[in-house]
């Protein structure tokens, strides 16, 4: 099976900004009830080469002993506040992060499909209401035609019948198209449930 990389990269970056030094501030379990914010991130510096970024990270780390300093590649998704004991250099875009991005993209797509499905169902229900109203009107017109006392009145009623029958045909066509769209959306939603988990691609920095 081909590994799929869901972690898109930016192709356009500012000049001489290829690597970034980062530090993170995250809540502890004790902070959960005290603060509403999830945490913070500090950009310590941006550099043209990996070596310059690492050199600067060591310098900052020697001064600021409270926060770890990480080096990551610009324009790529990086793990938020990674465990310093479980990473190697700039290998932040790991298996978990790729899986997280895959799940995020799938949820976005599902939300879009659900919205479209709901919208089509509302339109379909409105069409059904209009169809029922017009069919009731059609029955009334046929009854009036039978009771018509002169030819002019009968012709006017028959003209109204033809107009309503044309409207019913158009509404029926719209309903059929919507039924088809709703079925396709149902199949798409069903495919998300049946889709087997893929093997995510692990992205690492190549020296």
Automatic annotation (TrEMBL):
InterPro entries: DUF5832
Region (Disordered): 186-207
Full protein name: Uncharacterized protein
Organism: viral metagenome
